[in-house]
């Protein structure tokens, strides 16, 4: 079988790339080492935050606006709810860089937001913060159901004719502009073009190529999240999600829609080199205390700890996305530590870049590998 595009990694970006490629009439093979969805990547755990007023910088906002539109179109087309638009609340001090970046993006892109003081935040959302802190509410954003989104994108790609291959890639070679991908259990497939979006452990994939690729540095970080009893004080009917900037730390989470109040902490975790090093929750003593030590300060009405979970985040050297060609007809999207919200936009863009053999000027400027050579 000769495919137009082989997509290595059918998670966050790969699932939507497969969907848009198949929708365009391309013969597509979605490849993953594990049956998707699974709990061995970066997207499991039910939910991922969606926001547009972006503390990481305004260069992301055009992609976010495109993603917001595509999430809505996908929901409408396939009659499924994937996006809770109950509002996202950013909280921090006025001198915090993240909050200042949000204010800059609001002004630059004329985003729909509302500022709140500490008293209003506690009265409306039950979050206790210092009097000199403030909040920025994005009423039209919230969170996306991550596992469900990946599953549905793959299903719709299949409905449009995409093939699914669950196997371990062993080797990729190229002859006369055709790639041959060899696998552990299936003999091989052939493809005209390859999209790599294999997440945290993408180096396992890159090592399989017999020919030279542009060098990519992506590391994996083991992260934990906690769930707490909300005791009726933090329901999803009040708010979808939140971000709290506290000193040099970044907390994020989701109001209770099923298992309790879910909270993660950005400045924590362990760098890991393999899946084997991604230990289950509780393997490290700090798994319990790294969030627990702070939580009741912000959420005084919270109940007991319920459970914890582990995932892994892919990180580039500068924590920004990497979106670029690694060689002719081999395209890479990675380093997406905060990337799930972008999934449909990045998936669509990855397919279109491969199809046209061109890199968008703004993407080239902000996310290409050339920035590491400057």
Walk me through the structure.
Its cofactor is FAD. InterPro entries: FAD-dep_OxRdtase, FAD/NAD-bd_sf, MTOX. It comes from Campylobacter upsaliensis. GO terms for molecular function: flavin adenine dinucleotide binding; sarcosine oxidase activity. There is one protein chain. The chain is α+β, with helices and mostly antiparallel strands and 374 residues long. It has two domains: 2-43 and 147-216 and 319-367, FAD/NAD(P)-binding domain; 88-139 and 219-315, D-Amino Acid Oxidase, subunit A, domain 2 (D-Amino Acid Oxidase, Chain A, domain 2, 2-Layer Sandwich), CATH 3.30.9. Helices cover 27% and strands 32% of the residues. The chain has helices at residues 14-23, 61-78, 97-109, 118-125, 146-159, 203-206, 286-298, 343-356, 361-367; strands at residues 2-8, 28-32, 47-50, 83-84, 88-93, 114-117, 133-138, 142-145, 163-166, 169-175, 178-183, 188-196, 218-228, 241-246, 249-254, 261-265, 270-272, 305-316, 322-327, 330-334. The strands form three sheets. Strands 5, 6, 7, 13, 14, 15, 16, 17 and 18 form a nine-stranded mixed beta sheet that branches. Strands 1, 2, 9, 10, 11, 12, 19 and 20 form an eight-stranded mixed beta sheet that branches. A hairpin with a 4-residue loop joins strand 11 (178-183) and strand 12 (188-196). Helix 2 crosses helix 8. It is globular.
């Amino acid at each position: 079988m000769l495919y137009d595009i082989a997509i290595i990694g059918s998670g966050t970006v790969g699932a939507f790339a497969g969907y848009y490629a198949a929708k365009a009439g391309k013969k597509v093979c979605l490849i993953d080492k594990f049956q998707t969805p699974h709990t061995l990547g970066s997207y499991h755990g039910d939910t991922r935050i969606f926001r547009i007023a972006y503390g990481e910088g305004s260069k992301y906002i055009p992609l976010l606006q495109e993603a917001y539109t595509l999430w809505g179109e996908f929901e409408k087309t396939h009659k499924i709810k994937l996006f809770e638009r109950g509002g996202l609340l950013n909280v921090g001090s006025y001198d915090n860089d993240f909050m200042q970046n949000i204010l800059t993006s609001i002004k630059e892109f004329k985003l729909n937001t509302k500022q709140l003081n500490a008293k209003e935040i506690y009265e409306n959302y039950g979050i206790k913060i210092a009097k000199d802190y403030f909040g920025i509410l994005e009423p039209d954003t919230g969170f996306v159901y991550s596992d469900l989104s990946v599953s549905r994108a793959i299903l719709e790609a299949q409905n449009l004719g995409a093939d699914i291959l669950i196997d371990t890639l062993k080797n990729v070679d190229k002859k006369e502009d055709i790639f041959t991908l060899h696998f552990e259990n299936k003999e091989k497939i052939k493809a005209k073009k390859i999209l790599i979006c294999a997440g945290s452990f993408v180096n396992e994939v890159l090592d399989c190529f017999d020919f030279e690729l542009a060098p990519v540095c992506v590391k994996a970080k083991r992260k934990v999240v906690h769930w707490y009893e909300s005791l009726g004080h933090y329901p999803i009917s009040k708010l979808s999600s939140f971000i709290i900037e506290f000193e040099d730390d970044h907390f994020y989470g989701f109001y209770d829609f099923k298992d309790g109040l879910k909270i993660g902490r950005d400045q924590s975790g362990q760098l890991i080199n393999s899946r084997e090093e991604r230990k289950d929750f509780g393997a490290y003593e700090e798994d319990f205390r790294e969030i627990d030590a702070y939580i009741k300060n912000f959420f005084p009405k919270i109940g007991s700890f319920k459970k914890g979970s582990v995932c892994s985040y892919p990180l580039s050297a500068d924590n920004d996305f990497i979106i670029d060609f690694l060689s002719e007809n081999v395209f890479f999207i990675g380093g997406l530590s905060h990337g799930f919200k972008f999934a449909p936009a990045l998936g669509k863009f990855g397919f279109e870049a491969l199809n046209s053999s061109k890199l968008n000027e703004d993407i080239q400027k902000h996310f290409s590998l050339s920035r590491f050579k400057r």
